[in-house]
Amino acid sequence: QAMLSTRHAFVRLLGRRAVSSGSVSSEERMAKQGDKIVERREMHRYMVDCITKAGAADSHARQLADVLIEGDVRGHYSHGLNRLEMYVQNLQEGSCEASGEPRILNERAGTAWVDGRNLLGPVVGNFCMDLAVKKAKEAGVGWVAAKGSNHFGIAGWYSMRAMKQGCMGLAFTNTSPLMYPTRAAKPALGTNPISLAAAGKEGDAFVLDMATTTVAIGKVELASRKGESVPSTWGADGRGKVSTDPETIVKEGALLPLGGDERSGGYKGYGMASLVEIFCGVLAGAHWGPHVRRWGSNAAVADLGQCFIAVDTSAFAPAFADRMQEFMDTMRDLPRSDESESVEVAGDMEKRHEELVHTLGGIPYHPNQIDFANNLAKKLGVSAPKLL
């Protein structure tokens, strides 16, 4: 037991989430063949230039770039550089506001209802989670629901924001209707992500960040750009029938709930997406379900609903971090079904990608993503990101 404890301490000291080097393949310690590397600060500079050129206030542009960079650094490429042009178009076409501050509409000791005032999603999200943390420090729990928001990037950014301030954090958002509810032939719910971040010891943490569809739409878009097919649980065609063609899913169909079709348990993903919709759209008085504007459209404001929860764990049983660490270590030490792959907890995979970025000195991007960045830079008249 003492040796096991020492080993975990050593692993955490190195920043590793896995309990043995055998769980980290050589492929995970190097960029994929053909990838282009961009230093983190350089990509951040490029993103800020693009967003400010589109009209956003500098502070708003930086908040958005922070979230997009974090998505790429953690390996969630669907929500990083891949999303930049969408925000640029939102600003250029006036479907979201380029400056201003969110407003509190109703407030109690542990809760707040916020009007995001159609600002960039990260501006609304940062404001709301900081408010939730403040309330949690005073009341034990802070629950903030916002209407009038926009796409806010990876949900994990906000749950980790609370965690870095000493709380357990949860974040949720509704999105454009991209999911077929079980047995439906019309998209009526979004990818509706759920995130929870809870700290263990010595920098270790459990960070869940997941869509309630099998995947986010961005992963299907990336597969389309790369000319790859997708698994049968990802999406369906215009009739709600399973498809493995990303072009068909993106242009004609929609995503399936987490689990896939009904036979493989997709109704559970449908239920989880509905939970998020109730927290975000219904509770916050925002647009919900099929009433949210369709994906890719700027014809109307998004009016997304979002929910941010901070929990001061000291308001509950003492020594939360110790038990959290024991929980994560117990999961990782379970007997393996495949000796070449260790059991992990949420956030381990992202931590490995962060380590890869550190080792490379920058973020690895598929060449098609760099071509996309260069084209957008030319269109906006800003300097393209320089490669390492």
Strand residue content:
5-15%
Task: Tell me the radius of gyration.
Answer: 21 Å
Helix content: 25-40%
Question: How do the SSEs run, as a string of H and E?
Answer: HEHHHEEHEHEEEHEEHEHEHHEH
Keywords: Oxidoreductase
Family: Belongs to the LDH2/MDH2 oxidoreductase family.
InterPro entries: Mal/L-sulf/L-lact_DH-like_ah, Mal/L-sulf/L-lact_DH-like_NADP, Mal/L-sulfo/L-lacto_DH-like_sf, Malate/L-lactate_DH-like
Protein name: Malate dehydrogenase
Based on the model shown, name its key terms.
seven-stranded mixed sheet; disordered N terminus; single chain; oxidoreductase; Mal/L-sulfo/L-lacto_DH-like_sf; 388 residues; 40% helix; oxidoreductase activity; Malate/L-lactate_DH-like; three-stranded antiparallel sheet; alpha+beta; Mal/L-sulf/L-lact_DH-like_NADP
Outline:
By secondary structure, this protein is α+β, with helices and mostly antiparallel strands. It has twelve helices and twelve strands. α2 (40-53) crosses α3 (58-73).
Written description of the protein model:
This protein is of the alpha+beta class and 388 residues long. It is 40% helix and 15% strand. The strands form 3 sheets. It has a 7-stranded mixed β-sheet with strand order 2-3-4-11-5-6-7, sandwiched between helices. It has a 3-stranded antiparallel β-sheet with strand order 9-8-10. Strands 1-12 form a two-stranded antiparallel ribbon. Strand 6 and strand 7 (205-210) form a beta hairpin. It is globular. The N and C termini lie far apart (45 Å). It holds the Pfam family Ldh_2.
